[in-house]
Write a structure and sequence with these properties.
The chain has 146 residues and is α+β, with helices and mostly antiparallel strands. Strands 1-2-7-6 form a four-stranded antiparallel sheet, with no helix packed on it. The protein has a three-stranded antiparallel sheet with strand order 3-4-5, with no helix packed on it. The termini are far apart. The protein is 14% helix and 32% strand. It is elongated, with a radius of gyration of 23 Å.
Length: 146
Amino acid sequence: MTNFDMTPLYRSTIGYDRLANLFDALGAPEKTAAYPPYDVARTGETDYRISMAVAGFAESELEIIERGGVLSVRGGVAGDSAENDTHVLYRGIAKRDFERRFQLADNVQVSGAHLDNGLLHIELTREVPEAEKPRKINISKTLKAA
């Protein structure tokens, strides 16, 4: 794949570094792009849910951080003494450190999270401020005199 050098764009523009970062990210292959797998579902008019398969992780090994419109979910494997005593012949259950980031849309807030049967569910709510909601303008039949 052809790589593009975005260095001149960084030097000659101000405020477009996010755009250049997006172009850079398009060309770079992601490490462990499919781990852990996740679903995004709409659960109501303004409610959404991100469900991530985090089998084998305890609540204490997971961290959810929302900052600047970015939701980060991290999982870290804690040392397990029972697992250290066991010689694993085949490892089919992937339990490794991960970090998954989600860009949140404007006015989307995390309303909660819970772990259920190996799935981490993160609840999101889109709260549109009253000033940004569409409002209907009635058309009057008479012309007001100036």
